Amino acid sequence: xxxxDYSGSRGSPTHHSGTGPxxxxxxxxxxxxxxxxxxxxxxxxxxxxxxIEATFTSMASHVNLRMSPETATPTQLTADVExxxxxxxxxxTRFDSTSALxxxxxxxxxxxxxxxxxxxxxxxxxxxYQDTGGRFDPRILRALRALGYDRSFAFDAAPTExxxxxxxxxxxxxxxxxxxxxxxxxxxxxxPDPIDLGGIGKGLALRNAADLLRAASPYFLLEAGGDCVVGxxxxxxxxxxxxxxxxxxxxxxxxxxxxxxxxxxxxxxRIRNWxxxxxxxxxxxxxxxxxxxxxxxxxxxxxxxxxxxxxxxSKSLFLSGRDEIADAANAAGQHTLWITEDGMLEMTESMTxxxxxxxx
Length: 360
Prior knowledge:
- By secondary structure, the protein is an alpha+beta fold.
- It is built from seven helices and 21 strands.
- About 25% of the residues lie in helices and about 25% in strands.
């Protein structure tokens, strides 16, 4: 769901204004290319070449990790981070009928034992549902399936085409979501509607992995599919520079954020979109309509202390739409940046403190 697919570490505090940030001065690299700093020419002179780096794939995303060379037991730490992602992915995926989530979805009116990772994720999803006034609502699984999104798509490969929607849209927000929980037995009763945890699972994995990294590394950057969490002030001590990806697919980010001990999440229509029955659709389902949101926005980025919270609010605020997002973000106290369908970049006043360069 994230789309802030550039990440890196800042060098000297040189910033640009105007139509472009220059060839390397914005110090951002596309996440899918974070394998070796030395492969980026002049950029390698600005980053610590001694940093420990690792990459793996989880939750249909490239996961990239950069750690201080002073990190204790980096090999074991990397394995532990990958295990954190794997545990949540395995138990919370909707693409495996044997996962804990899908076993609960198969009989949502009955009590189901789901294990710790899935139990924690469902509780977090319910907390997010309450915190956002129901705007974040995971009961969208039927809507996604109706649009043909019933299997994992290779969105970065050929365009995906599915048959026309198999049923009329099913709004969920008219009925309160009232799941029940037994924390001692790790059992849940979801209620009448099956759920999708894709809107929070990655943020929870980033949160849990960051807890491990903070205890072992003076600084780190962990990025998964465009959402990221950073610890410390980076190799040069002046913060991490995080590029906000251009949702139209341009090579240069639309903005560069400076972050220290914070997280960033982007919800965008750029990657997870496909054609259903000849109609262009995307994965950001509005629970009020049961259909992909169509309210004038193409991307929303939120910065905050916690990656799961940032992921939840980036989606919830996306659903607010162009006319309401500013008021909604300010009311929620969220540092937010958004791109409209006509290419305008706008942000809350609180977000300006994080923006060190913008393209428009």
